[in-house]
Amino acid sequence: MNTPTKLGTYALGLVAVFGAAAGIGNAVGPVGPAAPAHDTATHDDPDTESSMDMTQQSSAANGAHAPGGLQISENGYTLQLDRPDLPVGGVTPVSFRILGPDEEPVTAYDTAHDEDLHLIAVRRDLSGYQHVHPELSPEGTWSIPLNLTAGMWRLFADFDPAGEDAALVLGADVAVAGGFTPVPLGEASTTAEVDGYTVTLDGDLVPGQESELTLSVSRDGQPVTDLQPYLAAYGHLVALRDGDLAYLHVHPAGEPGDGVTKPGPDITFYATAPSAGDYRLFLDFKHGDVVRTAEFTGSAGAPAPSVPDRDEPAAEGAGEHDDGGHAHG
Ligand SMILES: [Cu+2]
């Protein structure tokens, strides 16, 4: 009966390896009582003794507030679906309201990217992506048919209520009845094919930092230089974090008609990844009067620090860590 012991030893070995891999900033290691938060642990979960320090490092690296899309209610606004579950098959009407701080449906919106509200639907395995623009009734109900396969879906409403300074992204789940096979996240890639078009991705997502991403569209080996404006840009990019579907803030660089921005082949965006990890990127672009979506899997940051601290000469890199005051636990 010493199998459990062996397993236990093996597990401890794994923890030790993991602790070593986590490297800098992690002298305490993931076992044992939680290290007191170094500086600015912004999450207020009091029960974090088993959480990994890597996660804490990642969130500490992000000075911004929480990413969008993770909440059904925020800043007094609530996404209220008419039905939390839907039948499977074909095209299904979906309707919802945005309730304001007065709990009444919001009927006045500021237009952003040519629309008052953008609805993103994606199954929770990041398949089935749809970006649509529902119709608003005078009473404040948004309606749109969606093509929903069986499974758990996430709906994101991206909108800016009139009178508010900033746009909100609220998210809600919808269960679609029936059996389904989860689709694995695709391998990280810088090339996507859609409908005879090839889209390449240049640039890296950086945890906690805005980075430039350039997507370049070609067809039959020829750069596409006559992209059509779509949503006041030559492309619309949505990025979702694998695992919780956090919705990244992305904005295009330039817009059609500004005298600078060309209609392809390159479309440039600025995106901020809230943490290290995998993301799914969805680029909508319009050409030949058809909107198509190119999808990529991308990673932000390295999974673990690759260079042990002591091997670095006392140069600029180490200096930066010391400034942060949290590199050496
Ligand atoms: Cu939209």
Automatic annotation (TrEMBL):
Residues 308-329 have a biased composition (Basic and acidic residues). Keywords: Signal. Coiled coil: none annotated. Residues 1-22 form the signal peptide. It comes from the Bacteria. Residues 49-61 have a biased composition (Polar residues). Residues 34-72, 296-329 are annotated as: Disordered. This is Heavy-metal-associated domain-containing protein.
